[in-house]
Amino acid sequence: MEGDPPLRLRVFDLNCWAIRYLSKRRQERVRLIGDTLRREGFDLVLLQEVWSEQDYSDLMSRLAGCYPFSHYFRSGVIGSGLCVFSRFPILDTLLYQYSLNGYPYMLQHGDWFCGKSVGLPGSRAGVGRGVTAPLLSLSLQLHAEYCREKDAYLPHRLVQAWELAQFIRHTSKAADVVLLGGDLNMHPEDVGIRLLRGWTGLRDAFAEATHFEGCKNGCTLVPDNCFTDKSELLPFPLGIRIDYILYKATSSFTVKCEELKTTTGTAPGMDVPFSDHEAVMATLHIQRQGQAVGATPGTAGLALADVVTEARTEVAVGLQAAQHQRYSSGRMAVLALLLLLLQAAAALGTLAGLGAGQPFPKLSFCLLAFLALGVLVLATGLHLFHTMEVKNLHGTKEQMWMALRALQERP
Amino acid sequence: MEGDPPLRLRVFDLNCWAIRYLSKRRQERVRLIGDTLRREGFDLVLLQEVWSEQDYSDLMSRLAGCYPFSHYFRSGVIGSGLCVFSRFPILDTLLYQYSLNGYPYMLQHGDWFCGKSVGLPGSRAGVGRGVTAPLLSLSLQLHAEYCREKDAYLPHRLVQAWELAQFIRHTSKAADVVLLGGDLNMHPEDVGIRLLRGWTGLRDAFAEATHFEGCKNGCTLVPDNCFTDKSELLPFPLGIRIDYILYKATSSFTVKCEELKTTTGTAPGMDVPFSDHEAVMATLHIQRQGQAVGATPGTAGLALADVVTEARTEVAVGLQAAQHQRYSSGRMAVLALLLLLLQAAAALGTLAGLGAGQPFPKLSFCLLAFLALGVLVLATGLHLFHTMEVKNLHGTKEQMWMALRALQERP
């Protein structure tokens, strides 16, 4: 068993930034990505932000020869943007949509419309002597960070990180190898990443790689890339690392990251980048070992409890803000309703002949009524939305509390 | 091992019909449910339609003595209505919200606002000689059926049944015993139930019970219950069975249903029912056995393929309807936009002095503009909603196709 040759798994991960009509040189880049993937022959390709189904179809027809299996995950208004190409058969898929994903009225950010999710294709990879290992790979994207100093979306991103971690804990138990690739929109030291890694036991390919080649510190948003917004990267002259390949082996397998590479501002051998993000490419060694690996040591429990507490505090802050917004929008709806009732009373009064001598200002009356109606509809919608937000934040806070209790009770 | 005494697990499941201000004699019934649960001392209690957190808190304080562990699942605008009380520690929870759940504009049905979901509390139950079995219990409710002859929600309910089945398949792998209790809003022979049972291998406690006591055919919506709508039950003089306890044992355990009971129109020994639904109570025998049980025999594969095909056809019908509605709402939005543009042109023309001799009909102009604006906003909202619906129905249809392929390739 232990002597079986290891499986060498080559994984490619990229946020493709392929937004129809908005992303620069999109079709050229998608073609370039397709050509590179075909030439390089990875085992597993996890792509994000492929928003157009046409782009996916183009990629699929281009890659059918070397990646016979693929899946496109559909969700939200625009889509999840997630797709997977694989050399191994995809046996099953599952899509989990995060309960919170920004605000529908933040049109300029648009995350809400994307239905951000985690897509899980389950497959089996051959591992020596005809034995196959259930492989669970996840492609995902979390809510973007638009302002690091005053990050209004942090609670939502933390809820997503928590839901993702819980989803992995519950779905990965029967898989021998779990592999996650995606744009987490978090820096390596951020609380969300620490929470995700701590709560699932996933390891960071960049930190574990024996050999690394690419942008310094493994950055995936770099100033050298002609598509990145230079002003956003001013506080980080080397760039930031927000795209990850994470992995873990359960039961009787071990995974080692032999090599990690990133592109460095342009596609290999070209003058145009694949995307505004750099691609991450990992070579993993998966080996069956004789004895099952024991559970994660309990020493990490205390540090993990600190991370969960930190995340829970941030979620509580978000909960307070959401409660405040729910209250404000509710109050606004009530005021608009009162105004409408007042107007209805005035109109009835006029109809009944009160103040018959004065002319009735029909136009301004109508304008005001429509304004009040508009405010009523909008404020009610907002109130319902923030009620859902409060419920979901509250639910996550409780789940985290339950996790803390379980951590404390752990021997 | 095989000689270990079996665990006798007593499970209670009830759709409580506890809607604030709407459900009749709600507080009295919730008190009654609490008293009965305390007296009977079940091991696991799965409740649905507990919409008010106050009712949950009341139940919790009433039941703290005999059910030290409980959880309330929060989601949607109103909530999921799901809660669980347990004699065993609840170690972890996960909530999965179905991607489709009716229409927000069907206010009279209201399912959309409920955030219908499946709540998964993970616990460990003691099974002989200090050995514990991971127990996965699920409490859930699917979209209601309002008209059996012309069931507009069938595709949504099938998407929910499919997502539920996929969720169970992916989360249950490490559990020794999986237990599901809830209001599935489907008759036993309906395609959704056959899909759920076939695709997960769950067994129906009613069909398997050695001893049954309660309403004929295990019905849970019966004419004898004073709260049920008699006209709805006219085609079914005995009532219908839509509340279920389903279970399966994986790995090296067996589960047998020793006894199944339902209430019969009134709470035991009282003249008032617990709810408009009857409660379902099962006594299960869980036993560890020496050898691991083999996989489900492949002979069922063909029948299962037929069920998946049938469900996929219904989803395809729903997809067509959703595509039609997406198109209609999009066209309506475009028409409203054109009307607004036409009005803007007319207003500009008047401002520029054209037709200066004629009086400008300010009031009707304003009324028409607001009407067009209202239609534009509503139609755009509908268009976005139906776009999401199309995406989710399409995604489910594809997943079902993948399942069919996997079934056909199975040896």
From TrEMBL, chains A, B:
EC number: 3.1.4.12
Sorted UniProt keywords: Hydrolase, Lipid metabolism, Magnesium, Membrane, Metal-binding, Sphingolipid metabolism, Transmembrane, Transmembrane helix
Endonuclease/exonuclease/phosphatase domain segment(s): 15-277
Pathway: Lipid metabolism; sphingolipid metabolism; Sphingolipid metabolism
Biological process according to GO: sphingolipid metabolic process
Transmembrane segments: 333-356, 362-385
Pfam hit, one: Exo_endo_phos
Any single GO CC term annotated in Swiss-Prot or TrEMBL for this entry: membrane
Localization terms from the record: Membrane
Membership in a protein family: Belongs to the neutral sphingomyelinase family.
Official protein name in the record: sphingomyelin phosphodiesterase
